Amino acid sequence: MKLSEKFAPYVFLSPFLILFSLFGLFPLLFSLYLSFHSWDPIQGFGAMRYVGLKNFAFALGDEWFWHSLRNTLWLAVAAGVPQHLVAIPLASFLQHRLNRLRNFVVGVYFLPYITATVAIAILFSALFSTDFGIINQTLRSLAHVPLIGQLVPADNIKWLTDPDRIKPALAILVFWRYVGFNTVLYMGALQTIPPELYEAATMDGATPLQQFRKITLPMLRPLMYFGVTLSVVGGLQLFEEPLVLLTITGGTDMAGMTTALYMFKSAFEFNDFGSASAISWLLFAVIVVLAMINSRVFRERDEVRGVTGAKKSAGGKR
Amino acid sequence: MKRPGLVDAVLRPASTWSAYALVAVGALLMLMPFYFMFVFASHHRSEIFQLPPPLWFGSDFQANLKILLTQIPFLKNLGWSLYVATIGTGLTMLFCSMGGYAFAMYSFPGKRLLFSLVMSTMLVPSFLSMIPTFMIMDLLDWIDQPRALYLPGAASAFGIFLMRQFIAASIPKPLIEAARMDGCGELRIFFQIVLPLLGPALGTLGMVAFIASWNNFISPLVVMRSMDHYTLPLALRAMQNPVNTEWGAIMAGSAIAVVPLMLMFVFFSRRLIQGLTVGAVK
User: Fold this and answer.
1) What ipTM was estimated for this complex?
2) Which end of chain A has fewer CB atoms within 10 angstroms, the N or the C?
């Protein structure tokens, strides 16, 4: 018997849809359900009790939840924003100044992105080692260089044990891993800028720096908002890096405890699956609100500058 | 009037050259950690942490491998990673091309709603489903089973997106109509006519899916229990130890875990980069 044209799409979709419903959609609904219940896995699935908003109230009253949220926000901004400050000029340089070596250099910058986070975090825990790590050793050797030497601290930096240094160490790792990814995003956008703009500017005697400021930056604006949001939203989900670099404790004074890690700890160490689910939805709410504020702020700034039309047309292409 | 001579002759070339130098230094900083991963993999841990640290390859790679094999069931973990990633990649390619084809080539009730539902889950952070996924796997009694890793991975919203875009752009509808006129069944049209034309997109999706599974840490962390069933990232982390981590061995294991993807990247970097960034700017 032949499959009729009417039923064919459902047949083709069914393997994906079954898996998608079971492992993509259902967990989200289940997580929402869980956040309103109290449940300890040791007592089995029958022991789920409806507790209303108690889990959310518990999380919001939990000092460590707020601590983890402050850590996470700090990390998301400190690791995310500098990536763009580097990626934009870097992308512009690679796109406009490099020809034959371009793909190779892009590949080098992109390489950390395809490497397992765990391998990277383990490696960095060796590089960040206080007394013998390469990073501190390099700083030591720079101490004798005139000018730069003044900036190097006298003692070895306790990257992974000093609460004030843990977050910068994490931010460095995240920066290193994702800066190439963002560079590629910007290079993609640069390819859509008509070369005639640059040709005309060159004819008019504009320097490369002027072209960067007057053509490249304005044309990249729509992507900049989007890219920064993407990085910050990604940073708010930091989990693997602090877990491997600092273990589940989040390091000294929980200085590297992110909210996603705290959620994991609440579930699998404290066996409090209800509160953990509430924490995950609170973090999701923070992400959604920040993304909305971000797009609102940038849209208003655009309107003030009168470039909304440009943004819309660029947005339409995506 | 300004004298342009000085700027053109000295300052501009100097700034261009310093930009080249900066980009080169940046590229070196990107590569250095990998270099040290390989260097450390060939040194005993006592040599890694001394002053000055080793800057060139040593002779202890094999000794490190021996330690690795005694501390964790490394070969089993390697095989397990390969097994899960291969099956998962195969299923992702099959299910997502079928689903993408349905979205691209048919019209059926609920299509738009279903497609936007699938796409919207691409924006939902993965930590939300961590706990319920564990509970679902526990309920299904799938804890410690490989299917707990490759089946959820095969339901890739990104895969559906990629295949739908490719099929809509590259498979002409008249081709399908003509096949139908000739009495070709719907399944045969897909498997014998469409699927062979999907090569480039399937290749990209396959590589992206393989990388995702190979590097995946969160899912195995949540659903795998016994050391024999750990995937590589999980096994490597298990070697970390607050008192005496075998750094040389763990670096050797990490190097073995990252080299396959590096090789894939060397040969297919352009397509891989495109595949990995297309989801971000859709």
Assistant:
1) 0.89
2) N
